[in-house]
Every structure is written in C-alpha cells, then in structure tokens.
C-alpha cells in the first residue's frame, strides 16, 4: 500500500469514526441545559453554487431558523460581509458574524469589529489582485469589507495554480495581510490572531455559555470552520457538513444542507417552546 492509499484510508476511517448527527439528535439535545447554535452559511445553510451571489436561503430553512432562534441563541458566522449574510438570512434575533468573525452584530447593541485599521491596505490589495486575476479566465475577485477573495471554482484546473501565485504575490507585498484558504477560494485578510474559533469563544462568553451546563453547537462545512470545531473541543458539539470523507475535528457529521435542516428541525422538536 503506497502513501496515497494510506492517506485515503485514514480520511475514510476518520469519517467512519464519527457518527451522523441525525442519528444522535436526542443525545445532543440532552447534553446541556442551555443550548446555543452556531452556523456557517455557504455549504451549510445553502448548497455551494458556482457563483456566490446565487446562494440564497430556502424559505423552509429560514422558517426553521426562526423557530430555532425563538428557543435558543443562534449565530451565523460567514465569510460573507455582515450586511450580505444578514440580508440573505433575514431572521430577527439572530447574531450575525461576517468576514469570518471580524464583524459581529446582534440584538441589544451587541457589536464587535476588528481590522478597521487594515482597510487601506485591503484597498491596495484589491487593486493589485484585480489586475492579476483579469488575466486568468474564470477567476472572480470579491471585495468584502475586511478581506479580498479570489474565487477559482470556475477556473480551468490547469490554471488554478495561477490564482494561488497571484494571491501569494500580493500577500508578499502587503505584509499586514495573511492568506486563508477555503473551498475554491483564497482570501487575504488582516494578519490578526482572530478566526471563527476565536469569534465563537468570544460569543460564548458574551452569551454566558461559559457558566453552568451550557452546550454550544457549531455546524459548518469549510476549512475555516475547523477553527471553531477545535475551539469547542471538550466544551461543545461540532458537526461537519460534507458528503466526502475528510479529516476533521468535528464530533458528528451531516451530508448536506438538507440534512442540516432536518437536524435543526429535530432539535427544535426536543426543545421547550
């Protein structure tokens, strides 16, 4: 057996070792007296699509989130801008964290923003990266408030490396930024020790989940969500959304957004009204 076979076996074994969250809803619901649910957006609440602007929340998922938010604290942490994800979800009472947790807002004046001092360097990076990506067919640049994203989902496989080289070249010039990899996207964002995991811990403390028998649940599908999975180790439940086996720090898995909706509905049914 060569090294690739061993790697594939390890990935399969890891997914095989963690159970389906759908089969353990009752166990999860009973794990804490007070639950809070943290969710990614793309790939978790909505399917991954070729063009990010087309990822709209299904009405049934929106209704499920409304029902959930009426019972427990709910936060949505997305790589999208705060206003973008809030405008797509449109559920009152939910905490929204845009730009991978760099921009957080919720009811009662809840607000935290990191990285404002980096906006000028992000502006420069956007201009430089736009020029570079114009030469790569299918590459898409997306400027967010606190990051610049280079999408390569629609780039020819043989040209994908050119997107990475372009991003790295800009990062080498703009030393105040760091590269973060997601699903078919590279992002440049402020080089601050902050990510979805740090954001979840801050929100947990703000919501009082550090006290008593509270249980934070995080559901996500991307590499950036692994930071949150690791942050909740031994203190919460982490659920990976993926139809493909992969190495993960999650405790449970769900196949796709449809299963996420079924899981949330089953969870709601086990919560006091």
Protein architecture, described:
With 273 residues, this protein is of the alpha/beta class. It is 37% helix and 21% strand. It contains nine helices and twelve strands. The strands form two sheets. Strands 5-4-3-2-1-10-11-12 form an eight-stranded mixed beta sheet, with helices on both faces. α8 links the parallel β10 (214-220) and β11 (237-241). α5 packs antiparallel against α6 (160-173) and α7 (196-206) packs across α8 (223-231). It starts with a helix and ends with a helix.
How many E-type strands? Answer: 12
Strands of the widest sheet, in order across it, are: 5-4-3-2-1-10-11-12
From the alpha carbons, calculate the radius of gyration and give it in angstroms: 19 Å
In terms of DSSP E residues, the strand content is 15-25%
How many DSSP helices? 9
Mean pLDDT: 91
The SS-based structural class is alpha/beta
Biggest pleated-sheet summary: 8 strands, mixed
Low-confidence stretches are 1-13
The succession of helices and strands, N to C, reads HHEHEHEEEHEEHEEHEHEEH
Q: Give the terminus-to-terminus CA distance.
A: 54 Å
Instruction: State the shape.
Output: globular
Q: Helix content range of the residues, please?
A: 25-40%
């Amino acid at each position: 057996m060569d090294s690739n076979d061993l790697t594939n076996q390890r990935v399969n074994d890891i997914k095989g070792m963690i159970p389906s969250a759908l089969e353990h809803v009752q166990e999860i619901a009973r794990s804490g007296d007070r639950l809070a649910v943290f969710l990614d957006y793309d790939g978790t609440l909505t399917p991954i699509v070729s063009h990010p602007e087309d990822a709209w929340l299904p009405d049934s998922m929106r209704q499920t989130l409304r029902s959930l938010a009426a019972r427990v604290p709910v936060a949505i942490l997305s790589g999208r801008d705060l206003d973008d994800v809030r405008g797509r979800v449109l559920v009152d009472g939910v905490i929204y964290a845009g730009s991978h947790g760099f921009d957080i807002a919720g009811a009662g004046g809840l607000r935290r923003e990191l990285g404002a001092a980096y906006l000028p360097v992000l502006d420069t990076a956007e201009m430089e990266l736009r020029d570079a990506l114009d030469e790569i067919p299918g590459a898409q640049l997306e400027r967010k408030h606190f990051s610049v994203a280079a999408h390569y989902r629609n780039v020819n496989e043989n040209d994908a490396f050119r997107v990475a080289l372009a991003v790295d070249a800009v990062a080498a010039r703009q030393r105040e930024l760091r590269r973060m990899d997601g699903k078919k996207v590279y992002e440049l964002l402020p080089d601050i020790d902050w990510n979805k995991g740090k954001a979840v811990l801050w929100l947990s403390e703000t919501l009082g989940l550090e006290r008593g028998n509270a249980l934070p649940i995080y559901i996500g599908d991307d590499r950036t969500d692994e930071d949150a999975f690791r942050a909740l180790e031994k203190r919460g439940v982490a659920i990976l959304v993926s139809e493909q086996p992969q190495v993960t720090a999650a405790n449970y898995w769900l196949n796709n957004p449809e299963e996420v909706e079924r899981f949330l509905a089953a969870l709601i049914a086990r919560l006091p009204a």
